[in-house]
Amino acid sequence: MRWILDACTLIYLVKSKLFSDFINVIDYPLVIDTSVYKEVVMDGIANNYPDARIAKSILEEFKIPVISIDTSSEIKRFRDPGETSCFILSREEGVCLTSDDRAYKKFKEAGLKAIRLDTFYFEKWKQKKIDEDQIINILNRLENVNATKPKSIMFFLTKIYPKKEKINND
Question: What is the model's pTM?
Answer without folding.
Answer: 0.90
